[in-house]
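Supplementary notes for students who missed Thursday's class. We covered one full example, reproduced here. Read the sequence, then the structure, then the short commentary at the end.
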Amino acid sequence: MQIGQLTVKNDADFYVMGVLNITPDSFSDGGSYDSIAPALEHCEFLLAEGADIIDIGAESTRPGHEQISTEEEIARLLPILNTIRAAYPKIAISIDCYRAETARLALEAGADMINDIWGLTYDGKMADVVAEYGAAVCIMHNRRDMNYKDLIRDLKDDLSAMLALADRAGIARSQICIDPGIGFAKRIEENLYVLRHLEELQDFELPVLLGTSRKGFLGLLLDGIPPKERDVATAASSVIGYEKGCRIFRVHDVRKTREALTIAQAVAEAEYGLR
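Structure (token representation):
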């Protein structure tokens, strides 16, 4: 998978995607980076901490969020995206969006990847835009109900339908990663069950992105601790994901997760023989 100048290999290597929310209302850091100067400063910090990809989101998708207009999303996004791209012409930039017009303008402005929480299903033009620009895309599992008959089979069937949309639009499989959608259309026990069975996604033979960072199910498991205190739990769940084949990790605290994954990779690659 090629994300700008970054080559993502589906082997033992891992890649950390740093979250840059430029929204006033995100569940973890809303209002902290919603203007150019603090957004650029936080991007610099994420890169210094070891981020391989910067994922910029201009609309909160937290549970119960209020949807904003396409025009407002674009107005929030483009000044910050243009500034970051000018400052860092070579870094891999992902845009967390599900509207085709936002994606089109972001890709024109130099973004490399679209991270679509609706897996190309919200906006009928999204797949065509991604294909037109030859962009990378993350297809995340999501649905409008939680009426599962067989959770893992249903999740895989939903992802297969989303991938069929990509195929019909002409998006190369080599430009796709998939995301099980932890925290989206899933109850706490379903999030945990998906984490337990992440290896099932290897059937798609695509890189798997995992995004557990600071999510509500972690807080519920840890006596309701606030989002910014969930980074150790995030790192732990990321290690579980790594051991089950995930290779891209979308997180707020890049350093903690990178350190945890470095140990996980070292253990996975360790060899011992008689000397």
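Commentary. The chain has one domain: 13-266. The mean pLDDT is 94. If anything here is unclear, bring it to office hours.
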